[in-house]
Amino acid sequence: MSTDNARTGETTTVADAPWVGPAFLIGLPLAGAALGWGLTFIVEWIVGLRWFPFQGLFELFTDLSDTLRIVVALAAGLLLGIVLALFALHEMLTITVGRDRIALKRGDYHRDLDRADVSGVFVQDKRIVVLGHRRQELANVEFDLDRDRLAAALRAHGYGWLPGGDPYAAEFKRWVPGADGLPQGANAVLKARQHALEKSNGGDLAELLDELAALGVVVHDKDKKQYWRLADPA
């Protein structure tokens, strides 16, 4: 996705280009309306497919007059497109880099970090990670912006950019129940988090990750599996 770097006073904002938001707000509703209009041409065929879900809803749709079908289909498609556009805007990543602070916001995820607490920043596996001086992760969120623009913004403000990715990647071990070397209580939290991971429960995943961070445990997820390493003690 196209990325824009905007300088305001002593801060640099790394975000999607200014045209991306309006493109979502215009393009997705139009696409939704077009899909709704297209539905009017295939709804009779869909009703004939007994295995297709929501048959009752489609049968009600076929009972409408031709004019009302078009109006309902266009309105429903337009509304769906608006909802998707608003969600896309909400989930766009914005990184604000300043002399004293760095802030990351994506959806409900928000981290505002003091420069003094940051030891380095890297991007790996399409995620941006901010490391602290105890090798802990201060921030970890999905990244889909331009890596070079991010690096330039960080360097311009004196932050440590790690072009080689995670310097501690080799330390991660796959978690198994009862794993040795973890702080007291961490195995229980990891067990609960594994259950949340299998259920794709995003709220519990984030909350339990914070609990593990408080115990000095860094966790990454891959293919419904958890991999862990230890941060340095406080």
TrEMBL record:
TM ranges: 23-47, 67-89
Iron as UniProt keyword: no
Record Pfam families: bPH_10, CysS_C
Organism domain of life: Bacteria
Domain Cysteinyl-tRNA ligase anticodon binding as annotated: residue spans: 180-229
InterPro entries associated with the record: CysS_C, PH_YqeB
YqeB PH domain span: 12-161
Keywords: Membrane, Transmembrane, Transmembrane helix
Protein name, UniProt field: Uncharacterized protein
